[in-house]
Structures are given as C-alpha cells and as structure tokens.
Amino acid sequence: MMATFLALLTQILHAALILAAAPLVVGGVRWVKARLLGRRGPHPLQPLRDLLKLLRKRPVLADGSSVVTRATPYVALAATLLAALLVPGFAQGMALAPVADLILIAGLLALARMALALAGHDAGTAFGGLGAAREMTFAAFAEPALLASVLVLAVLAGSSNLDAIAALFREGSLGIRVSLLFVLLALMAVALAENARVPVDNPATHLELTMVHEAMLLDASGRHLALWEAQAALKLTVWLALLAAIFLPFGAAPVGAGPIAWVVGAVLWAAKMALLAVALAVFETSIAKMRVFRVPEFLGAALLLALLAAALVFITTGLA
Amino acid sequence: MLTLLGLGLLALAVLAGLGAAGLGRRLVPLGAAAVAAVLGAVAMATLALGPVEEAALALGPPWGPALVALDALSAWFLLVLAVVALPAALFAAATGPSSRAEAAAFPLFLAAMVLVLLAADAFTLLLGFEAMSLASWALVAARHPSGRGRRAARLYFGFAAFSGLCLIAGFALLSAPGMGFSEMRAAPPEGWRGTLALVLILLGAGSKAGLLPFHLWLPLAHPAAATPVSALMSGAMVKIALYVLVRALFDLAGAAQPGWWGAPLVVLGAATALWGAIRANVETDIKAILACSTLENVGLITLALGLALVFRGADLAPLAALALSAALLHALVHAGFKGLLFLVAGAVAEQAGSRDPDRLGGLIHRMPWVAGLAMLGAASAAALPPFSGFASEWLVLQALIQSWRVAELPVQLLSAAALVTAGMALALAAAAMLRFVGLVFLGRPRTPRAAGALDVTGLMRAALVVAGAVCAALALLAAPALGLAGGIVTGLLGEGAAPPIAGLDLMLGEAGARYAPWAVTALLAGLALALWYGLHRKGAPEPRRSPAWDCGFLPPPPDLPFGDPLTQPSAAGAAQPIRRALGGLALAQREAHHPAAPGSATPARLRVEARDHGFVALLWPLGRLRRLAGHQAERLRGLPLSAYLALALGTLVLLLALLAWGAVA
Amino acid sequence: MTGPGDIAYDVAHLLGGAMLLVGFVMLGQRRIGALIAALAAQGVLLALAAFWQGHVQAAPQLYLTGLIALLAKGIAIPLVLHRLAGELPPPLRTEAPGRMGAGLVLGVGLVGLAMLVVVPATTGAGALARVDLSMALSILLLGALMMVTRRSALAHVAGLLTIENGLILAAVGVAGMPLVVELSAGGLVLVVALIAGVFARQMRERFASLDPGVLDRHRGEGR
C-alpha cells in the first residue's frame, strides 16, 4: 500500500518536474546558442511566455482544414506526455515503470509524429505536405536505428523495459562497453532528427524550402500552435531525459529510498539535463545544417552504428 | 460443429448456383455474409471449447474418403477469414455484383477457402487450394474482359499455377506415409526429403502469399478485383496460404525439424516486408497502396513464423510461443484492418469516382464516416499505439529482440538485421498510411467530382462500421484474443508453451516487458481530454476561418473555389523523398526532367518511370525463355516421320526404365 | 581471464571499438581533408592501444610500437597527406556522392563476417583476444573495402593504412608477440614506399588531366 502510494507520488512529482523542465530546456538551449554566437539572446523563460500568450489568442483555421487540425494537437501532446511519464527521471520504479517499455515509448512518439504529419496535410498547402513527407522519410531511418539501440540495451539488461535498463546501468556493473558508446552516438543522431535540431532541420528557420518540422505548423495558430510548441519542447525534454536515464544513470533514487534521496536525485537530474542541453547548444552552433537529401545518409550511418553495436554486444556477451 | 460448417458450405454452393442463374443480386452476398457470421461463431466456439474430431466424408477421391477436421489452428484461420468475409460480403450486397460470373464465383471463393481450412488430408487441402486460386482468378478476370486488368489476371493465373504445382509436389513428399494428416504427422520427412519439402512448400505457399520473389502478381491482381474480393484476397487469401505454410512446416513436418528451417522464412519475410513497404509509398492507386501494404504484413508474419521455427529448433519453447503468437495475432489483426481499409478504398472509388489520389482530396468534409474509419484502419496499419496493429507488431519486435537468447552468432546477427529491416518496414508503412489518408481525405478536393462526393449510407456504412468495430475491439482485446490461440501454441510447440499474456496485457514472462492496451488507451484518452478541458474551461476563443496562409500565397480566385489543385502535394510529390532515398532498393527507376523554356509559362515536368526489380530480373527472362522454347518446339514440326516414331519409342523406353528402376529400388 | 568489468579489458576494448568507429567514419567520409583527420585519429588510437597493452602486459617493446604509431601514423603521414590534399584542385578534394550508403552497409556486413570467422576459429583463446582479433580483422576488411570503393588515390592510401592499422592492432592485442616491432617497422617502410607511389601518381594525374582521353575515362567521377 505504502509502496504504491510512494510510486504514485514520485510519478506525480516526476510529471511536474518534467513539465517544468520542458520550456526551460528549450529556452536554455536558445539562450546558450545565442551567447555562443555573441548575441544576448532572449530570456530562458521566453518560450513559457510565448506559450502563455499564444494560449490567449484566437486560433485562425485555414479554409480547407477539418477537425483534424483541431484534434491532432491534443493527441500529439497527450502521446508525448505519456512518453514523458514513462521515461524515468529523478526516481526509478515509479507507478508506470512496469509498462515503461522502450518500444511503447517509440510508438507513442510515432503517434505524435503521425498526428503532426496529418495536421500538415490538413490545410491542403504545398509546404505542409512537403514537410510531412520529409518527416516520415527521416523516421524511416530513425526508427530502425532506435530499435537496434533498444536491442543492444535489451541484450545487456535482459529486457526492453526502460526502468529495468536504467536501474541496471545505475548499478554500473557493466564496465565500459564499446557497444554502449556506439549506441550513444546512434541515439544522439536519432534524437537530433526526431527533435528537428540543427544538422537535420533548423528549429529557428522559416526558409520554406529547408524546413521540415515548421513546415507542418505553418497554418497552426493560437492555442493549437501553443500545443504544438509545447509538444516540441516536451519531446526534446523526453529525449534528453531518455539519454540521461540510460547513459548518465547515477544518482537516480529508487522509489523506496526516501525524500532526501529524491531531492538529491532531482538536483542531479536537473544538472544532467542542463549538461545535455548545453552540449546540444554547443553541438548545434558548431555544425552546419545538412541538405535534406543528405539526412537519410546521416541517419543511415546512425542505423549502421547501432547495428554494429549489436554485433559487438553479441560477441562480448557470448564470450564472457 | 462440422455439420454446421457442412451446411454452411452447402449454403454457399446454393448461393453460387443462384448467382450463376442471375437471381438474388442482393440475396447472394447477404447469404454469404450470414454464412461468414456463422463461420466466425463456429471458429470462436471451437477455439474456446476445444477441437472437433476428424470425420470422413461420404464423398472423396477413388482411394478413400475425404477427411475433414477443425482443430485450433484451422479455427483460428477460420476466424481470420470470417473477420474479413463478413464486412466484405455486406459491402458486396451494397454494391451488387457486376456480372453473373462474379455473383457465382464469390460464394465459391469463400467455400474454397473454408475447404482448405477444414481439410484433414492432403488431397482435400490441395483441392480447396486450387479451387480458391481458380475462383479468385475468375473474380479478377470476370471484371476485365481485356486490357491491363486482364493482363494482371493472366499473370496471377501463371503464379497460381506455379504455386499449385509446387504445393502438390511438396505435399507428395510429405504424404509418403499416407494422405491423411494423422498419418503424415506419424512419419515426418527426414534428411533431403524434408529439405526438399521445405523448399517446395515455401515456394508454393510463399508465391500465393506474395513472398519475394514471387510477389509481382499481388499488387496487380488484388486491386484489379471488385472491392469485396480485393478485401478477401488481401485480408484472407494470403492468410490461407500462410495457414498452409504453418500446417505443413509446424504440424505435418513434425516438431523435430532443425532450427535452420526458420532462416529462409526470416530472410524472405524481412525482405518482403521492406519491399512491400517501399512500394506502398510510391504506388499511385489507393488499392495498390493497400495491396503493397499487404506484402509488408505478410512479410512480418512470415518473419515471425521463421523465428518461431528457429526458437523451436533451439529448444526455447517460451520464445517460440512468443514468435508464433506474434504471427497468429498479426494475421488476425491484419485481416481486421486490411479488410476495413480495402472497403474504405472501395467506398471512395464508389462515391468519389476515382482511385487515383490526384483526383481525390478533402473527402473528410464530405465523407466523415469513411474518413474516420479510414483513419482508424490507417492508424492500425501504421502500428501506432494504442491501435490494433501495435499490439501484434510489438510482439514481433519483442520476438526479434529476444532472439539473442539463441546462443549462436549467426542467428543473432541475422535477427539483428531482420529487426532493423522490420523496423524500417514499420516506419515506411506508417509513411504509406499517412500518404493514403493525407492525400485522399485531407486537404482540398482536386476535382469537382471529389468535391461533390457523398458519404456512404445504409448497407455500405454498416459494412464499414462492422469492420471498424472489429479493428477497434482487437486493439483493446489483443490479449484475450491471443488467449484463444493457446490451444494452437501448446499443440504445435508442446505443453510448456503458452501465449505471452497476463490478464488483459501482453507480457513476456522472463523478460518482463509488458504492453497494457487498456492502460495506454485510458491514459492517452485521459490526458487528451484533460488537455482539452483545461484549455476550454475558461471559455477559450472560438477559432476564426480564413484562407490558408501557406507562407503568403494568395487566397483562391472565385473561379477556383478550392484553389489550384497543383499547389497541393500530389501523389508523386508526397512519394518523392522516400522514393529518392529508398526506392532504388525495390524499383528500377528512370527519371526524365523537362524544364520549362526560359520565359515560357508552361510548368516544368518530371517524368518518373518505376518498375519492380522483379519484372526485370525474373519475369522478363522467363518470357524470353518461353519464346526460346517456343521456337525450339516449332522446329519439331519439321522432323521426318521416322524421327517422330523414334521420339515416341524413346519416351516409352524411358518410362519403362523408370518403372524398372523404381521396382529395383 | 579478463572479461567485461575488468579495467584492462574495458580500455582495450574501448580503444579497439573506437578504431573501428573511426574506420567507419573514414568509409563514410567524402572530403579528403576529413578523411585524413580521421586517419590521424585512428593512428593516435592505435598508439594508445599499443601503450595500454604495453602497460597491461608489461612489455616494453610495445611502447616502442606505440611510439612509432604515434609519430608516423598519428602525425607524420597525415601531415604529408594533408599537404598533398592541399595541392589538389577543390573538386578533387571530395568524393562523388552516392554509393556511400551501399559502402557502409557492405562495411557492416564485413564486420559481421569477420566476427563469424574469428569467433569460432579462436575457441580457447581469452575473451579479450577474441574480441580484439575480430575487431582487428574488421578494421582490416574496412580498409580493403575503402580501397575498392574509392576512386581517389589518397583514399586508397588511407585504406591501405587502415589495413595496416588493423594488422598492428591484432598483433598488439595478443600477449607475447615478439614480432610486433618488426611488423610495425615493416609496415612503415611499406607506407613510405606507398607515399612515394602516390606522389608519382598525383603528378601523373596532373599531367594526364590535360589529355581529353583521360578526361573521358574520368567522366563518371564528377557526378
């Protein structure tokens, strides 16, 4: 009874924490990028202010759009929220941990992606369809790379349950694994593509022919746009939390460890997220955006890397 | 039970007679729908209560009575058949057959498929199989007296004949001890005999199911038939072929076959899945998109079956149960959503007058029922949680991930490659479904005909709703449905094996991974509703309508109320990124770019010709070979009389020698 | 016996894996400049691997091997190649697009093949040696693949050096290999000879590029 209550409590705390982190992560990355480029940059809380302003505005619907435009933002944000609830943050063994399957998380993100692509098609504009087709093409490479990474993690941890993987890695009995290095690189490439970050897509662009993610949102406005912006921010946070849970697992508190361990875990989690966000900003400022048709190569390389990691992990586990 | 099924078959025969006589245009399909409902009920009852014993019919071939039985495996596939047949027959009743041949062949097609499932001896099974091929060919050919459809039918006939021949040879090898299934089970083939049987069955059943490299006919023949027939062919007929595969490789060939038997299935399955998914993204006929997606799903099922064989060979019964359950569940789920999607496509063709996405668009405004159900089916086909496709594909992926437990490096490497291929196929399937829904139902109408389409009503709507209800029910009830297949899993894999379920969840015992459809559905719905409520609680401003912004395009002129259709993505345009990145894997492509002359107002044109590699690599050489053989045969006509006599004598001597050799051996 | 979790194994494994990764980077890299940088990185990693093995096995001759690798492969050869690349006209500094994806897929296939060969063939050896050997063979095959798929002479040199890196990695990883010094020295001679060869070839290419017949032969390269 007590255990259930604690699990539920941590789950709620985790939800609050990750929701609070989402706008900060986006704003923080923007701020650090601006600083690195020698600009002052907007306040890190600017995304939150934008969101609140957009929520108050009256949405404008394109003439050809249907109920899809009005419903998909809710579906996408709900799916991303559920994924956020499944990824372990400061604590492990939360209420939803038994169903925190990596394939389910990938599926939920795919659901959000599909909702976004449908919204892109709905207004019947050239750019919306173009962005949707490109987004799905990238996914065709990102998804198998993610699955191959899941395979490696599952071989090491015995299960594709993210909570189990994170708990095992926290104990640190695995040593340094080359395969994990490869998986890290592959997952980072997938994360960049999924979140429309720089070498794949430019989150700040509105140049029609190069944009992918923004192209699908051209005709969204008001609260719909706010929901989409929130979804994008939350998705980035989910991915960073996922990377942190797998590759920086130290300090996460098991649910039964008590409030002090939770606080320590939360502080460490915030530090990890900040570290990853800064790393992302540094990476984005130091690299140029790719041509759209180079992206499949980039993601294909990630896919092969993950496959290579699988091969390596097979022989090392087979021999040890 | 068997009596009930026998009555059903009889009823189908009567209906076929009525159809041939041109009577009861509505009655024949409605009767077929009733029979399909009975089939479904019988299948569920058999799965729940236990198998029906073998029975001998009073009629049969000269050497003995025909045997029929209904065990769990047959009953499961009977359920698969019923899931498609019921809405398809309702839809057929709504549209009515186009000719008497079609009206007669439709019940026969159903009856033949039931016969394959009921058969308990090789002869009856093959009889049913050939009748199924013939009836479905007739259904394709009856609609197309000439032209491309006729050519598709001819191609289909060729492949069906090849598949039939291979199956006959394969079952001849298996039935050395006797024609009855129980005799075959008692003495499974060994050594080269077993290997040869595997190859022949794989060729025979595989070419009927559309496995590479014998997939060429499927994207041509399935769309060429009438909509309910397309649904049956894509949703059920390929499953019957897979049933034959399972029956022969898992059941009749015995449990002691080596694990490498699974390897060709894994390879072919993964390749077919990717191939079909790529082609589904470039087709420009909505029914062909769905047929190619069938290829993808057949590939996934075959992949899972192959894994089950590998695991069985490695004595990993729980994993074999996982893989087999994945294949069975996916067969059922695919029947659900593919039936629905084909009926949706048929309804679009019927109401909006075209199957070309470039002549459709914006149908969600005029056809909300069809559009909603299309999205349900597409979400299932795209394997999005919490829809039905996700449950079964989650099992397939888990089986692939768990295959590292087979402690052999080649198996591990193979399954890692298969995992990546399957993952890519899944993502591409989602892309194909997005393209289907986005081009047909969203956006603006591309033709006046599409702008004036009407929603489905009456029987047609009922057919779609039935299919949609099945699809939705399977999403939530995946685990209980799989629980019905427990008898198959224990029957084929031994007492220790059971489907990976725990209550309403799918769960892997030792690995601990878990998928809870109810919880995911409830959480998603709860979160979405909470968001909606949260934003609308304080009287959110009502949206306003205005022309699409689209980066500053002008609003449409009054003479083009929906705007220029060319400013929307076309079927080719939406396909372009995937075609460019991956199309070369499956298609031989030629692009010709004709830019507009400087200063002229004509649009630039891009011509793309894409042809399946299979045509170039398999079919055309075969055609050349046939012509060559024809020329050689022509030369025989010029022989002198003595040469003819020598030929006849030579044949006779050869036959006698064969006989003598057989007697000595 | 060393295995995962043991620091000696982990570091050696990590260095070998990193070399393999760099091998893939080279295989997928179009720009000659970046290719040479990757080659230098691989040389440095090889030197580190040799140092580490020298430390673990307490074998001083491996330090010498590492030093040679560091000076020659990590610094000297990349510098020379870099200068050569700088003299190329800009269009020749990048490889033709396309074909990279297929090359990478083939590379992964070759790694799988290497594992399938090495793992059964080395039954009885330690886990470290087996993993190391399979990685070394993979790197070697990747180098050979690079020589097959690339057109540029400099890429060929890089491929050959990768082959040699793989060989030395294999030699370094196996305990008590007395020939290592000689091997690396021999490799060095080989490389020096090769660089001379490239030099000659480069010059020939310059002159030949005036010849329309040769241009015709090179036509597929520009696209």
TrEMBL record, chain C:
The keyword Oxidoreductase applies. Keywords: Cell membrane, Membrane, Oxidoreductase, Transmembrane, Transmembrane helix. The chain crosses the membrane at residues 6-27, 34-55, 61-81, 102-121, 127-146, 153-177, 183-200. Its EC number is 1.-.-.-. GO terms for cellular component: plasma membrane. Its main location: membrane. It is an enzyme of class 1 (oxidoreductase). One of its GO terms (molecular function) is oxidoreductase activity. It comes from the Bacteria. It is found in: Cell membrane. It is a multi-pass membrane protein. This is Hydrogenase-4 component E. It comes from Roseococcus suduntuyensis.
